[in-house]
Amino acid sequence: MDIILVTTVIASLFVVIGLAEPLAARLQLPYSVILAVLGILIGVSATFFLRTDLTDALNPVAAAILGLPIRSNVFLYVFLPTLLFQATLGMNLRRMVDDWVPILVLAVVAVVVATVSIGYALFWVSAIPLAACLLIGAIVSTTDPSAVVSIFRSISAPRRLARIIEGESLLNDAAAIALFGLFMGYVMLGIPDPELGSALAQFPMLIAGGALVGWLGARIAVWVMALFARHELAQQSISVALPYLAYIVAEQSVGASGVIAVVAAGLTLNLTAPGRLPPQALTNLRELWDVLAHWAGALIFILAALLIPRLLEEVRLEDFFLIAVVVVAAIFARAVILFGLLPLLTAAKLSPAVERPYRVAILWGGLRGAVTLALALAVTESVRVPDDIQRIVGILATGFTLFTLLAQGTTLRWIIGRLGLDQLSPIDHALSRQVIAVALQTVREDVAQTTENYDLNRDIVRSEAKRFGERLETAVKTAEEATDILDRDRIALGLIALAGHERDTILARVRERTISARMADLVLSDADRLIEGARTQGRSGYQRAARRSVAYGRTFRAAAVLHGRYGVSGPLARMTADRFEMLLSQRLILRDLGTFIDGRIRRIHGRRVAELLHDLLARRIEGIETALEGLRLQYPGYAEELERRFIRRTALRLEEREYTLMREDGLFGAEVYTALMQELATRRTAAEGRPGLDLAVRRGAFIEQFPLFADLEEGALKRLSRTLKTCYVDIGDVVLRKESPARSVFFIASGAVELESAGQTWRLGRGEMFGQMSILTNRVRRVDVRAIAPTTLLVLDEDRFRRLLERSAALREAVRASAEKRGIDPVDLISGGRG
């Protein structure tokens, strides 16, 4: 085929891609539907001009279009890895973890249910072998959520809902294609009725093998990319190679799922790259992949749509009945998950609630697209698949795809309108009024400054200022006097605005490089949780998200267990260092929010809301200071090193700004500027390095800060530091319960706990201990102990505590004082301890 003609056709397809997006926006249709329609029209037109006797002038172009080397391998090995890899890079994985239950249910469980439902429905109404029916079910189980996600975003649907749909899209394709490979093997081997249990039993092995290949490949790629820190194009080139190599190695060498390998590689790169690559390099890398995925997604839709006329050439009347069966079975299977299983998971508190109107929209928005057509094409091209199965697979997959695109896709926006999802709620109306009022105040200040700088005509300035002032006064009055929302909603609006400003502050600090990209992901996730919590549950949701931001997570506890029981300190050291830097970053950001409350929020919501927000902000700062104080006590000197690092990065940012300003003023040329920036980059790389944290070395210094151990000798302190175990507890966690056996004594390193017994309550803080009374009186515990702040405890077993009590006068005095508070005779207590 003439290379010039092929190049012209491909370039013309890019023109079509460029025109499709504005056309979809104008017609208010999903982008994928427009691409599919255009592809079908191009394919039908090419076929018509090639076969018609009207003219032969367009025959070369038509032949070039129909003769494009469109094979299933092109879709599966070229386009699909691009789409999956970009989807993983663009995700906020830490927020996805919050909704992992509904995502996995919609993606994996729903795919299995849809595959089985569609497969057996076809098997019962046709003479198609069960293996081929299950293969069809796997092919049409992949969903393209781009349409529903784009519409949800345009109607300001909850972020969490769009996030669930995006997470489903990623894992949905992976699960469906893994099942496709499994049943395709049975069809090619001529096994008509496979045992479903044994078939699905192989499914986890395909996933595990692919995940291992992807994880290992990404770790190697990140290590190599980190070596090329100054060569951004080299980093981007390695990232482009990663998904394709992971796919090929998993499929051809390991016999696992290549799709899973690509997903695992992207997830690993998403999680590890922020700590290893410069922030700007990572941003540019993601922008590159956004463009590649946009092109790949558009091309796969158009090229697959070109094949639809060919796939439907042998359609028969009875095939329409089978297409209807597939449609009904697919919708039924998806409805079972959305309206059956998902509410059960919500009732069991395993999944956040998804409101019924949104579930209806998700049900109708389960469009199928290019991946379904690509898998069907792979079946029709295989010489090992019987001809009759090739025909029916191609027709059913294509017919079902056309139904979802042309019937569901074109009516989805209308369905959403009928469900009332395109109408703003009262709180959203109030939020829009708040935004207008705040924006106009900022505009007034900026316009006043601009008119002063340009010395404009005073009469004109005065006239326009009066006109603008009237509009501003009306906007502020409307925001203040809104009667359609309650006071608690006003507080929620203030909290949403505060959390949004916090997020903007984080992004500004990232651009200034005073906060690393690694920490940016963590604190941005916390800010998103604050916004979502305030939006859905008001003050309580905001406070819950704030507490979570300083709490010890499950992974941190697991790392502590690894360190305490097995001596594996690497994960705990890394997470502790992350916690240090995250708390410092949050403290710096929160200290800037008070001005925002006094300025914009007070103007809109009044003094009472502003004071409440100040109180909530003060509590957050206090919680962060408490957590930081505990870490400083445990690892003296480390926080100071991180603060020095922050100062150095700030100085480098200011130095870069000065060089740029002087260069723009023409004080020196490009050669000098380049040399200065290269030197600055070298110093910035050195300043980005985080100081190491040695857990073992710091333990002894930590214990020396305890007044209870002040009179112990150095040797005894070292032995004690090796004996004590560290325990981390969150707010609300129960440390000890009544009637539990007394085996250990607890020393509070940071945080605070509350003891409750017989209606009385005591609070203990840093440097104090509890649990000793039950041991020394030989009784079961009579108190419940609960953490009232993120708390670090040092735990000592009974035998070592008794020996320590004999050696330490300070400890005996502390025990005596504690006994007197509770009305216990200290003489008998201490003598019992010595006995």
From TrEMBL:
Transmembrane segments: 30-50, 57-80, 100-125, 170-191, 203-229, 241-268, 288-308, 320-341, 361-380, 392-416
Membrane topology: Multi-pass membrane protein
Record's keyword terms, sorted: Cell membrane, Ion transport, Membrane, Sodium, Sodium transport, Transmembrane, Transmembrane helix, Transport
Domain Cyclic nucleotide-binding span(s) in chain numbering: 708-822
Gene3D superfamilies, A to Z: 6.10.140.1330, Jelly Rolls
Subcellular localization(s) per the UniProt record: Cell membrane
A Pfam entry, by short name: cNMP_binding
InterPro entries assigned to the protein according to its UniProt record, in alphabetical order: Cation/H_exchanger_CPA1 (IPR018422), Cation/H_exchanger_TM (IPR006153), cNMP-bd_dom (IPR000595), cNMP-bd_dom_sf (IPR018490), RmlC-like_jellyroll (IPR014710)
Protein name as catalogued: Cation:proton antiporter
Organism: Sulfitobacter faviae
